[in-house]
Amino acid sequence: MEYGDMKTKRIPLLVGIVLLAAMAFVGVASACDYGCTPGYWKNHPDDWPCLDPNRVMDPPNADLDGDGDLDTFMDALNYKGGSGDIGAERILLRAGVAAYLNSCAFDKFPDDFSDLFDYLDNPVGQRNGMLNLAGYFDYNNNAGCPF
Description:
This protein starts with a helix and ends in a 6-residue tail after the last helix. By secondary structure, the protein is mainly α. It has one domain (35-141). Helix 4 (84-105) packs parallel to helix 6 (127-141). The radius of gyration is 19 Å and the shape is globular. 57% of the residues lie in helices and 0% in strands. The longest helix is centred in the N-terminal third of the chain and has 28 residues, at 3-30.
């Protein structure tokens, strides 16, 4: 078999793999009908189905925005991120607070937050894990806001 023949046979295989991945992606998306972004919840605190925007978060019971006060749930939605573990913790909390609000608002929204609390209890050296979990929350938070 010549190299050109191998190349020709690999293309259908590659197309099949891409199609399977796309179908799996669509299947995951359909598990969550709705989800509103952190920006939506930040700008619509009157729509919050649970939580008090001004309540101090515990955990992490910290001042991650540097204003000298313990951070509230609303503070988390205003986090900008940053470098290192603290930046990842801000990114995770921003996405996590929105995900929690979505889980209160929408029946089919994923509601397992055990990993979030594990990272908040021990954030040191966990940047990649926190960013991966934030990405998962962010994906679901962007499912489409019906409000």
